[in-house]
Task: structure prediction
Amino acid sequence: MQRLRKGTRLVVASHNKGKVWEINQLLAPYGLEAVSAGELGLAEPEETETTFRGNALIKARAAAEGARLPALADDSGLEVEALDGAPGVYSANWAEPGRDFGMAMSRVHDALERKGAWSSETPPKANFISVLCLAWPGGEYAFYEGRVHGHLVWPPRGGKGFGYDPMFVPDGAAQTFGEMEPAGKYATSHRTRAFAAFKRDALEGIEPAVSVSTGAGAERDLAGLTAAAHGLSTKDELVTFVAGLRRDLAEHGSQWENSDLPRFLTGLEAWLAATGPTDEPRWRTLAKALLGGSTHK
Ligand code: IMP
Result:
């Protein structure tokens, strides 16, 4: 299996700009540049397989062949033991219509009750899974998986996180993912574990540099930054965002409207004054304000 080297361009097989931006931040210290399948004008393939690996491979392979570059795709979901792994690859579908995860969690609960598999003494076992697939244009591919095992609770608890987080308690913890501080969730999460496996096996021999150029091109990626600022929801994501903004200043400061501190603060002030009271302060509000400070006149 080929390994990624410094300077490699890697396609992230996703059309979600925020997700691509986050993966770029993760890869930047390794001197790798992530571009999205969307930016390259590649079509999104249909996810017709019935396994995480199958769907991750479809997405990674389509991007690798379309771009003639190595491509990374991910697929994730919740697997409930007593439901034979459901909702599994259909985790997002169970929340449709309306991307309603309250309804999706009720569906899981109801399905378990119908099977007589819900009991508070022996709560149902479940795990989250994240599968990354790295595919090469020649046809080679590899998977990197991360799982976190635990059990389900009813009713759901906690308003943090997303998706099925409020009904999942990881082994060794008392809180649900929905009650935990983000740092607690990310320390054990399936996604963190899958990325750790990817870093260990696919980036072997590449030392992360303390400060490197992302090689992200001559243009400031304002669309990517904006998408990330609008999509982030945790403190950890905000910390990553600020690191990315700092790197953006180092590389593209000449394209900032306000690249010195007095002008930045004036821009921040103007952005805050111009923003309506409807925007409730959230982690992403801070990110939007910082980005606004760099552009606002
Ligand atoms: P995707 O791979 O980003 O499409 O995620 C598939 C679905 O799995 C999401 O819509 C969520 O329902 C669920 N899921 C994946 N990871 C998590 C998680 O960390 N917490 C809660 N739900 C998750």
